[in-house]
Amino acid sequence: MTVELTGLTKRYGATTALDSVDLTVESGEVHALLGHNGAGKSTLIKCLGGSVRPTSGTIALDGRPLENLTPRSAIDAGISVIYQHLGLIDGLTVSENLFLGNELTAGLFVRSRSQRIVAAESLARIGADIDPDIPVGALSSGGRQMVAIAKAIQRDAKLLILDEPTAALSPVEAAALGRLVLQLRAEGLAILYVTHLLNEVMTLADRVTVLRNGRAVWAAHMAGTAKGD
Ligand code: ADP
Ligand code: ADP
Q1: Does residue 42 have its Cβ closer than 6 Å to ligand 2?
Q2: Which of 47, 87, 145, 178 has the fewest CB atoms in 10 Å of its CB?
């Protein structure tokens, strides 16, 4: 899948948060998005996630423009945004969190027993050794990040958007997350990775875009990343 932003612009009153941004993310690619505070990173990923409506410009999947994205239609289109707050509910189990929200999708109802099996499979797919029956509140930051990613994968995400995913992680957890990102890339996901850490850009990114005051001021392909070219 190719996700293409063309001329994406978002104004909040007099503030231009995004100013005609062009950006492409392809399957099997990690695209790193950099920029100082206020550069427009959050606004860009919220546009992709359907929670902010662009003022103008288009978001297209495989050449097909997505009109009037909502959080629900973004998920249905295969776009999963993992915000820093992750959106998990501490008092519910891992399994319950993995299915939370799915009752809204057409006709999907999974009984709790099979739900646990699907949850265990989703966690296994990303190599997360997490008990589906424990409350999310009992997990470390790294464990919570893994559950959020498992949820995106379970929803059949084609574009995974990670917003500074290692910000709250220990070095060991961050390394595990990096390995997972490379695994998902190898499986063909398109990944948009917001970071300001140079080591993550150097080890993970195939492409980099730098936002500044809402404009994409610099974009480049990275040579010789772990993709092995
Ligand atoms: P970043 O994520 O790179 O820090 P943001 O996308 O959050 O940048 O913000 C880009 C600009 O848009 C900033 O000037 C910010 O103050 C402004 N902005 C973001 N969200 C809103 C909003 N809901 N209302 C008004 N201005 C906003
Ligand atoms: P981030 O670092 O993720 O951009 P912020 O703390 O800048 O987070 O913003 C938190 C929330 O406030 C975001 O939803 C953003 O859209 C909103 N926001 C940012 N700037 C403004 C602003 N000037 N007016 C209103 N809302 C804003």
Answers
A1: yes
A2: 87
Q: Quick check: 37 pLDDT over 80?
A: yes
What ipTM, to 2 d.p.? Answer: 0.77
Q: What is the rounded CA–CA span in Å between residue 27 and residue 159? A: 8
Ligand 1 atom at shortest distance from the alpha carbon of 13 = 25
Please tell me the pTM assigned to this model: 0.89
Q: By alpha-carbon position, which residue is closest to atom 17 of ligand 1?
A: 17
